[in-house]
Every structure is written in C-alpha cells, then in structure tokens.
Amino acid sequence: RERNGDVLLLAQLFLNRHCARFNLAPLRLAPELCAHLQAYPWPGNVRQLENAMKHAAVMASETVHLADMPEDLKHV
User: Fold this and answer.
1) What's the predicted TM-score (pTM) here?
2) Contact assessment for residue 41 and residue 1, using Cβ atoms and an 8 Å cutoff
3) Is 44 helix (H, G, I), strand (E, B) or coil?
4) What is the mean pLDDT of residues 38-45?
C-alpha cells in the first residue's frame, strides 16, 4: 500500500512462484490488470496480493485479466 511502484514487480514474482508451484506455464499480466493493481488500495497489503496471484495462477491461461482475479479485487 505504501510502495505502489512495487506492486507490479511483486505481482509478477508471486505469479511466477505459484505457476512453478502448480507446474503451470508462466503467465503474464494484462495491461488493464496492471493499471487496476496499481490503483487498488491494498488493505491487506502484500499477503492479499500474494493470495490474489495464487488465485490468478489457477484461473488464467497465458495472460491474467481482471476477470481471473478474486471477486474482492475486481472493484477499486
């Protein structure tokens, strides 16, 4: 929440980690999702971001879109 510039780096790190953990192909973040992640207030801080990327790793294919994210993150 305090270091908004780190959100995308952390999101990609967590996404890569969970893809590897679940033996999935690497995924990338869609541009509209990147903008949303940076605008989101992150009340749960890093733990919330990591859980969201874990969810996205399982739900997405090739590119993670806002639709692949948990419901509580879909609204700013």
Assistant:
1) 0.90
2) yes
3) coil
4) 90
